[in-house]
C-alpha cells in the first residue's frame, strides 16, 4: 500500500523551465507557429523590459493591423488581450519562455527564451 503522506504539500508541483535546454527544437517551432506569439516575443525583445498584458495586447494588435497603437480600435485591443490572457501567454509561460506576474499583470522574457530566439529569426 502506498503511503498517502508521501507528498506533504497540497500545492501542485510545477515543472521548472529556467534553462534554455528545457525547450526542445520541436517545442520551439510549436511555440512559434502562431504569428501572434511571435509578435509577443518580438515586442518583449524590443522593449527589453516587462510589459503589462494590456500594453502588450495593444502592441500586438497594432502589428497585426500594421498601424500605430493609437490607431488600434479598442475592441480589437480587447480581443487580442483576451487571446493573450487565455491562450498565448500561458503557452509561452508553460514552456518557460516568458514569465507572467498575475499580481502586477506583467509579462517578461525569461532566460529560456535564448533557446527559442534562433528559431524566431528563421520564421520571421
From TrEMBL:
- The annotated region (Disordered) lies at 1-28
Q: Which stretches make up the DUF7344 domain? A: 29-108
Which InterPro entries does the record associate with it?
A: DUF7344, WH-like_DNA-bd_sf, WH_DNA-bd_sf
Q: List the Gene3D superfamilies.
A: Winged helix-like DNA-binding domain superfamily/Winged helix DNA-binding domain
A Pfam family annotated for this UniProt entry? DUF7344
**In its UniProt entry, what is this protein called?**
DUF7344 domain-containing protein
Name its species: Halorarum salinum
Amino acid at each position: 500500500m502506498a503511503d498517502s503522506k508521501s507528498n506533504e504539500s497540497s500545492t501542485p508541483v510545477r515543472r521548472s523551465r529556467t534553462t534554455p535546454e528545457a525547450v526542445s527544437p520541436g517545442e520551439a517551432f510549436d511555440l512559434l507557429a502562431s504569428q501572434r506569439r511571435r509578435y509577443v516575443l518580438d515586442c518583449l525583445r524590443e522593449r527589453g523590459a516587462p510589459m503589462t498584458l494590456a500594453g502588450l495586447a495593444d502592441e500586438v494588435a497594432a502589428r497585426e493591423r500594421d498601424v500605430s497603437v493609437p490607431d488600434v480600435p479598442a475592441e480589437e485591443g480587447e480581443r487580442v488581450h483576451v487571446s493573450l490572457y487565455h491562450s498565448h501567454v500561458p503557452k509561452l509561460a508553460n514552456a518557460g519562455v516568458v514569465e507572467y506576474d498575475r499580481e502586477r499583470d506583467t509579462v517578461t522574457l525569461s532566460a529560456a527564451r535564448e533557446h527559442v530566439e534562433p528559431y524566431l529569426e528563421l520564421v520571421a
